[in-house]
Design goal:
Radius of gyration: 26 Å
Helix content: 55-70%
Strand content: 5-15%
Order of helices and strands: HHEEHHHHHHHHHHHHHHHHHHEHEHEHEE
Number of helices: 23
Oligomer: single chain
């Protein structure tokens, strides 16, 4: 393989990103977080107000607006769109840039193209990044911009960068804040800085303090511009949101301290190399980078995991910033292992590790087509015979080739084969997503509601209490109000059309008095459960006064 220039590895990474993030990116349904961003983007375009975003007609200040602006720009450029394939393009681009930025970071760190490629490939084929890169929400942008800033910092310190590099640092730090506030500063910047000072003792920074202060001031200006504008025009709303979001870190989605310690599973076929890279006495002698650089990455990763584990609020996607140094650890270890086998200096532990990786790759290649066939044909009754034959032959060829390459102790060839296995798996998963995931013959969302049911002047309510479901707001392309009996009766007496969304028969939610005053006409039912029919459907109903 030609790693003598950047062309070949970068081309492979672009192909990897196209398959991982762009191919059929619109087939996965919108989830709640994504719907919030997309609804806000649509309302920015509708209201032509880019500085004060709204969501379902109310001011939306919980997240900085940069990712929403990206989605709004796509919406405006397309002349208004609900095409998810288009709306998710900014996120797919950001995920691709994250992979390419990691390659650049590793090149600056090690000056080794193979190591940089392996690390970026491990990140680009990670199933968590695969998932995050397919959703038009906030997470991917803040970490992409932050990694760009960290790469620029490393370049400035090691390559003696000019003032323009420190401008880049400040701008990308500010853009990271404008994407999701302090999230990436806590989960990516802070562990990086701690690892850098721990291992290098701040080496190379003493003569750079004025430029670094300039970068921080530039970051502060960019980060503070929008919040300051909101503080001037909507101080009460900003204060309320700040208190709500700060409380969310300890009150919502609370999980135990060890919640993230399943992180190796996201590596899939890279599992053996990932775990081996964390065994310091062993990996330190095998790493393809200097010992101090290896220790820097290890401390960076360890502190990232500890910080993320210490915060009570936890979600799988929050783990992404810790997987960035983990990919670099895996890539550097894999590079060093390739040299060991090339020189013939391997020991028994190296042989066992390579055998286990080959076994894991071949087991994946054997089990995946069987699993695919079972769910498509026996569970869901989908998938063509030709598709199964082609997929089975490709997976079988990968399994056979893995053992052939293993016998030659070709670590790089085996790694590229494993990468191809993951790429083909991503391809088959997205190709057959609808048949694979949607086994419920009654599956139906509100995006399929007949327009005649909801005329333009209808006032739409959500019957059950709690937070308005933004997925419904996105699908119906209109505002939804919280249910208020007095308000509904007032509108009906003014002969205004009223409709209501309810989980189950809406009559069950009404008081006896109101049931006596109104008539309910169920006009459509929806079932959001993908695997099997839901017992209690979501009803869309018209409400009118009894004559």
């Amino acid at each position: 393989m030609n790693f003598k220039s950047h062309t070949f590895p970068l081309l492979l990474l672009v192909v990897l990103s196209c398959v991982s993030f762009f191919y059929k990116c619109g087939v996965i349904p919108v989830d709640m977080m994504e719907a919030r961003n997309l609804v806000a983007a649509r309302e920015i375009v509708d209201n032509n107000d880019w500085l004060i975003p709204t969501m379902n007609g109310e001011i939306r200040l919980a997240k900085p607006p940069l990712p929403t602006w990206f989605a709004a720009l796509v919406t405006r450029a397309a002349g208004g769109t609900d095409d998810l394939s288009l709306l998710r393009i900014p996120n797919a681009i950001s995920a691709t840039l994250l992979v390419l930025f990691l390659y650049g970071f590793c090149w600056t760190l090690s000056k080794d193209r193979l190591m940089a490629f392996m690390a970026a490939a491990m990140l680009g084929s990670n199933i968590l990044l695969f998932e995050v890169g397919h959703k038009a929400s906030w997470d991917i942008f803040c970490h992409t911009f932050m990694l760009a800033a960290l790469w620029a910092f490393l370049y400035a310190i090691r390559e003696k960068g000019t003032l323009s590099v420190f401008v880049v640092i400040g701008v990308f730090l500010g853009l990271s804040f404008m994407s999701k506030g302090p999230v990436s500063f806590f989960s990516l910047f802070l562990p990086f800085a701690a690892g850098y000072f721990w291992v290098y003792k701040g080496s190379g920074m003493k003569k750079r303090w004025p430029q670094l202060v300039f970068s921080l001031v530039l970051c502060l200006i960019i980060s503070a511009a929008w919040p300051l504008y909101i503080a001037i025009y909507h101080p009460e709303a900003l204060l309320a949101v700040t208190q709500q979001e700060s409380g969310a870190w300890v009150n919502r989605h609370v999980q135990p301290f060890w919640y993230y310690w399943n992180f190796p599973l996201f590596s899939t076929v890279w599992l053996t190399f990932t775990l081996a890279a964390l065994v310091k006495p062993y990996a330190e002698k095998r790493t393809g980078i200097s010992v101090s650089d290896y220790r820097f990455l290890l401390v960076w990763f360890g502190i990232a995991i500890l910080l993320l584990s210490a915060i009570p609020e936890k979600k799988p996607r929050y783990l992404l910033p810790a997987l960035i140094p983990l990919a670099m650890l895996g890539g550097s270890f894999l590079r060093g292992l390739a040299d060991v086998f090339k020189k013939g200096t391997q020991v028994r532990a190296d042989e066992v590790l390579l055998f286990l990786h080959t076994l894991l790759t071949s087991v994946f290649a054997v089990l995946l087509p069987g699993t695919l066939f079972y769910f498509l044909r026996f569970q869901n009754g989908g998938g063509s015979t030709f598709f199964f034959i082609v997929a089975g032959l490709v997976y079988g060829a990968i399994a056979a080739a893995a053992w052939r390459v293993y016998r030659k102790r070709n670590v790089v060839g085996l790694s590229l084969l494993s990468l191809f296995l993951l790429l083909f798996t991503f391809f088959t998963y997205m190709y057959s997503y609808r048949d694979l995931i949607f086994a419920n013959p009654e599956y139906k969302t509100m995006s399929q509601a007949a327009l005649a049911v909801l005329p333009e002047d209808v006032v739409l309510y959500q019957m059950e209490g709690g937070v308005i479901n933004m997925v419904h707001v996105w699908e119906l392309n209109r505002h939804i109000r919280e249910w208020r009996s007095d308000e509904v009766l007032s509108l009906l007496r003014q002969e205004k059309p009223v409709a209501v969304i309810s989980k189950g028969d809406p009559a069950a939610f009404l008081s006896k008095k109101m049931n006596a005053e109104v008539e309910i006409e169920v006009v459509d039912r929806f079932d959001y459960k993908k695997s099997k029919p839901q017992k209690e459907k979501i009803f869309l109903s018209r409400i009118s006064l009894k004559k």
